[in-house]
Amino acid sequence: MSIVPDLVHVFPLPLRVVPEPLEDLASLLSRTAVQMEYKQVNWLLRPEDGAYSRLDPAVCFLLEDAAYHYLGHLLQLNEETLYKLTFHRFLMQMHAPDEVQPSPSGYLQRPLFFPNGHATHALFLPKSASRVCPRCLAEEPVCSVLYWNIRPVVACLKHRIFLVDSCLHCQGKIPLLRSAITHCPHCSHTVAAEITASHPPSNSLRTRCFCRARP
Ligand SMILES: [Zn+2]
Ligand SMILES: [Zn+2]
C-alpha cells in the first residue's frame, strides 16, 4: 500500500465493524469487506475508480505513517486502535532491544517490528502466512486472533486443538489476508469447523498426544 491517495478525496467507508479484543488487522479488513458486500478485500481501497493500490498481504506488519492515516480515515479508527490490530502491539509487553529503535522517517513513531529484524523472524510466521483455529471461526464473534500467528503458539488455548495453516479440503496454505476469514481463498471451502458429538475434532491435542505416546 505504498501509494496512498490524498485523504481530501477519500470518504470513510459507510459500513464498518468494531474491532474485537486481540483481533488482527487482516481479520478486521475482511469483516469490513463482507459488510460492504465486496468480493475482494482489496476493493476497500478506492474501489470507485479502480486505481487503488493493493493491500499488503502482510498487513499486520503495517509500518508507514501515511498508511495508518489512510486506513484510520477509511475505517474511522484512531492510530492507537489500528496499532493494536498489528503484531507491533506485542512490543509493548516484551523486551526486544533490537526491535525497539527510533522509527525511520515516514514510519509510525511507535515501537515496530521491522521486516528483517531478528525478533520478526523468530516470533512470527513468514510474512503473509497464517494459522487459524477452525472451531473459533465457527463461533461468535467470528474473527481471527493476533496470537494465532506467533510462531511458538501451535494450539488454541480455548479449544485445546492444534491451529491449522492449510485448508483441510484443498491443502492450500491459508493466507493472512483473505476476502472471507471463514473461507479458503483457493477453493472457497469453509475453514471453520463446528464440532458436534458425531464429528469430534480430528486434530485435537488429545488425539495427537495419544498417537505420539504410542508410535
Ligand atoms: Zn479455538
Ligand atoms: Zn481450500
How would you describe this structure to a colleague?
The chain is an all-alpha fold. The chain has a domain at 15-122. Helix content is 20%, strand content 2%. The protein has five helices and two strands. The protein has helices at 25-35, 65-75, 79-83, 118-123, 205-213; strands spanning 155-156, 161-162. It has a two-stranded antiparallel sheet. The protein is globular. 27% of the residues are buried. The protein binds zinc ion (2 copies).
Briefly characterize the structure.
By secondary structure, this protein is an all-alpha fold. 20% of the residues lie in helices and 2% in strands.
- Which strand-content bin applies to the residues? under 5%
Widest β-sheet, arrangement of strands: 1-2
Query: For the report, how would you describe the main beta sheet?
Result: 2 strands, antiparallel
**Helical percentage:** 10-25%
Q: Structural class given helices, strands, pairing?
A: mainly alpha
Mean pLDDT: 83
Low-pLDDT sequence parts:
197-215
The outline comes out as globular
Instruction: Calculate Rg over CA atoms.
Output: 18 Å
Bound molecule kinds, no repeats: zinc ion
Distance between the termini: 48 Å
- The ordered H/E elements are HHHHEEH
What is the count of DSSP helices, taking H or I runs of 4+ residues? 5
Number of strands: 2
